[in-house]
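Reminder to self: tokens first, then the designed residues, so the page reads top to bottom the way the pipeline ran.
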């Protein structure tokens, strides 16, 4: 089949799935879809690295559905958060139904008995968080001996030291003869080393260097004293009129900020690990429908929210993990729309800001309205004449975590 440039036609996609793409008015593949789909439909192991909001779900979802429809076993998609599992299920629903396949979502916080009943119906695709899946495996409620395709979405998070033991327990139960696909916006060398031990001659499709900020997101940094963050936030909420996703570092902080916003008359909800699954679903639904203008979240939402019309992301606190900065700001500027991200940093966090800039190989512009005048930029940038830019050539930089007590 001859490929039509800038089209899904010719990528090896079956006619039934092309019809779904046409019905959804998806006519032009994103770069990661164009690069990964032809490789994945052949059954080759794939590592896909691309900026957030660039369609990675369909890059692995379409090939997985197509291969499973040909009678090639079962698919298992592992993700770090409940919200991301639900989102992937919704994104793939039309494609799954097109071939009369069944999918089940297995996550914590939901009825285990209902999930067991779904698994007893032998779904073709299981989308799961590692904790709940391991619980069900321990109860002998399912077997993974027929898994033909394994997908790790947000693979850098799935293979870090927090999830790695759970992931390895699951992988030990899978057949060696399988297809494995890893996708993320950030893929660090140590993660690739771990991943390579579970893959067979993977093809790496890197659309943008790991850690690259989304193209359609402009960024802005405010250096502000900790006690003045609330005042600055109120000013910004008055300045912008659209939906706002606000990231804080701790669960307690999320509750405190959300409560303060509601007291000031803002329609705000919160989402973090201490909220029940029903509360988290209500918050997400209310944010998507406009019931809540502001969603206050910990990094649980940095990889689990796909809302196309978020006007502004505010990093009220810097993230603990450098890589999460890229995932946070990627919640805006999605599906071809522009977005803006504003970050608050205290004067003693200059080193942390520089680490984020080095990780992205780009400087974050400092607002002239910051309390503290900026120091020398973390990176000196050279722009072509007449074309200002905040980008620089990618640099090799070892991924590091920083935690402020």
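Designed residues (405 positions):
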């Amino acid at each position: 089949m001859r490929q039509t440039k800038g089209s899904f036609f010719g990528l090896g996609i079956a006619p039934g799935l092309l019809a779904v793409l046409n019905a959804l008015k998806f006519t032009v593949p994103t770069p990661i879809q164009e690069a990964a789909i032809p490789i994945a439909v052949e059954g080759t192991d794939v590592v896909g690295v691309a900026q957030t909001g660039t369609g990675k779900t369909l890059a692995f979802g379409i090939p997985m559905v197509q291969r499973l429809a040909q009678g090639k076993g079962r698919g298992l998609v592992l993700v770090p958060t409940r919200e991301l599992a639900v989102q992937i299920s919704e994104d793939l629903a039309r494609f799954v139904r097109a071939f009369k396949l069944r999918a089940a979502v297995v996550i914590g916080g939901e009825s285990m008995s209902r999930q067991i009943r779904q698994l007893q119906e032998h779904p073709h695709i299981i989308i799961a968080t590692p904790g709940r899946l391991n619980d069900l495996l321990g109860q002998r409620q399912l077997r993974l001996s027929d898994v033909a395709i394994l997908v790790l979405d947000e693979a850098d998070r799935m293979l870090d030291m927090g999830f790695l033991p759970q992931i390895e327990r699951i992988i030990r139960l899978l057949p060696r003869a399988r297809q494995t696909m890893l996708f993320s916006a950030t893929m660090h060398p140590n993660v690739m080393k771990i991943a390579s031990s579970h893959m067979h001659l993977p093809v790496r499709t890197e659309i943008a260097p790991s850690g690259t900020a989304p193209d359609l997101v402009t960024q802005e940094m405010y250096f502000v004293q900790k006690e003045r963050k609330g005042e600055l936030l109120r000013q910004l909420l008055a300045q912008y009129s659209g939906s706002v996703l606000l990231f804080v570092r701790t669960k307690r902080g999320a509750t405190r900020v959300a409560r303060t916003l509601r007291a000031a008359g803002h329609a705000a909800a919160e989402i973090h690990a201490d909220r029940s699954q029903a509360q988290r679903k209500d918050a997400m639904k209310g944010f998507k429908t406009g019931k809540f203008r502001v969603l206050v979240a910990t990094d649980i939402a940095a990889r689990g929210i796909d809302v196309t019309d978020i006007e502004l992301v505010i990093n009220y606190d810097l993230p603990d993990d450098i890589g999460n900065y890229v995932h946070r700001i990627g919640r805006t500027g999605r599906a071809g729309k522009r977005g803006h991200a504003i970050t608050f940093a205290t004067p003693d966090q200059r080193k942390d800001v520089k680490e984020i800039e080095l990780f992205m190989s780009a400087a974050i512009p400092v607002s002239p309205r910051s309390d503290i005048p900026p120091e020398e930029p973390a990176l000196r940038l050279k722009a072509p004449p007449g074309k200002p830019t905040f980008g620089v050539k990618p640099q090799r930089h070892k991924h590091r975590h920083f935690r402020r007590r």
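Confidence is low (pLDDT under 50) at residues 372-405.
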